[in-house]
From TrEMBL:
The active site is at 109 (proton donor). It catalyses: N(1)-(5-phospho-beta-D-ribosyl)glycinamide + (6R)-10-formyltetrahydrofolate = N(2)-formyl-N(1)-(5-phospho-beta-D-ribosyl)glycinamide + (6S)-5,6,7,8-tetrahydrofolate + H(+). Its EC number is 2.1.2.2. N(1)-(5-phospho-beta-D-ribosyl)glycinamide binds at residues 13-15. Residues 4-182 form the Formyl transferase N-terminal domain. This is Phosphoribosylglycinamide formyltransferase. The lineage of its organism: Bacteria, Pseudomonadati, Pseudomonadota, Alphaproteobacteria, Parvularculales. Pathway: Purine metabolism; IMP biosynthesis via de novo pathway; N(2)-formyl-N(1)-(5-phospho-D-ribosyl)glycinamide from N(1)-(5-phospho-D-ribosyl)glycinamide (10-formyl THF route): step 1/1. InterPro entries: Formyl_transf_N (IPR002376), Formyl_transf_N_sf (IPR036477), GART (IPR004607). Keywords: Purine biosynthesis, Transferase. Catalyzes the transfer of a formyl group from 10-formyltetrahydrofolate to 5-phospho-ribosyl-glycinamide (GAR), producing 5-phospho-ribosyl-N-formylglycinamide (FGAR) and tetrahydrofolate. It is an enzyme of class 2 (transferase). It comes from Parvularcula lutaonensis. The gene is purN. Belongs to the GART family. (6R)-10-formyltetrahydrofolate binds at residues 65, 107.
């Protein structure tokens, strides 16, 4: 049975684009059946449409969390999705929604969890004077950024780094890690391109 994947975004969808590319190249088993955004103007929607993938918008602004999540769940069901990837989806989901998708929803976070949960993680890393940072793909659970870890990618933190330069370095690692981690979760053989300065690991 082919796994039907939905990708949830809020912005330009750079991680979404790498997942689409990897799936089209046969590196990720399954079919991407929906890209959904909580913002009508999200740049990733245009990219998904160009790739021929169905899109949907369920606006979060002006709605209660329950109303918003009901709309998201309806869209997922109508698309036939059975696995969800959060890719820059800037909404905290309720426990009820997360439990419904237990073991079938991934997120990518731009730090080496359990370090630096939540927002402003690059500022936190620089302030803490850590030698390395990176990103983590994990299953989503009711605990914020606390679900079981699928894989991590490590990059150096340089003395001259700003939050923006560190974010750009971590994002390159995200684009390698997320497709490989998703492939592993769906029973495929993870593939990634080796790049200098990025250490990747799947659990």
């Amino acid at each position: 049975m082919t796994t039907k994947i939905a990708i949830l975004i809020s912005g330009r969808g750079s991680n979404m684009a790498t997942i689409i590319e990897a799936q089209r190249a046969g590196k990720i088993p399954g079919e991407i059946v929906l890209v959904l955004s909580n913002k009508d103007g999200a740049g990733g929607l245009a990219l998904a449409k160009q790739a021929g993938i169905p899109t949907a918008v369920v606006a979060s602004k002006g709605k209660s969390r329950a109303e918003f999540e009901k709309g998201v769940q309806t869209a997922l069901e109508e698309a036939g999705a059975d696995f969800v990837c959060l890719a820059g989806f800037m909404r905290v989901l309720s426990e009820d929604f997360v439990v419904r998708w237990n073991g079938r929803m991934l997120n990518i976070h731009p730090s080496l969890l359990p370090l630096f949960r939540g927002l402003h993680v690059h500022e936190q890393a620089i302030e803490a004077k850590v030698a390395v940072s990176g990103c983590t793909v994990h299953y989503v659970t009711p605990e914020l950024d606390g679900g079981p870890i699928v894989g991590q990618a490590v990059v150096p933190v340089k003395a001259e780094d700003t939050p923006d330069t560190l974010a750009a370095r971590v994002q390159k690692a995200e684009h390698l890690l997320y497709p490989a981690a998703l492939a592993k979760c769906l029973g495929g053989e993870p593939e990634w391109d080796v790049q200098p300065g990025i250490l990747l690991s799947l659990r």
